[in-house]
Specification:
mainly alpha, 71% helix
């Protein structure tokens, strides 16, 4: 008998993290075959996303208990 996988229920916190990481990965995928000067320029343009992710992670860290898996992942 084949077991069905339970559908994951993502919280707003998960969804926001995936949004930030998805945007950064999108940029990286789009520049992987380009020269280093172009990659640097695109990464500079995506810096606000990385900064927003960092700030968001700092805020989230204050909301989760010490020792939790989420806290460990952020730390």
């Amino acid at each position: 008998m084949i077991q069905k996988r339970k559908a994951r229920k993502y919280t707003a916190r998960h969804q926001q993290a995936l949004k930030y990481f998805g945007e950064l990965y999108r940029v990286e995928r789009s520049i992987e075959a380009t020269d280093s000067a172009h990659r640097l320029e695109e990464r500079r343009r995506s810096r606000p996303v990385a900064d927003a992710l960092h700030q968001w992670l700092l805020q989230q860290r204050q909301k989760v208990p010490d020792g939790s898996a989420t806290a460990k992942a952020i730390d």
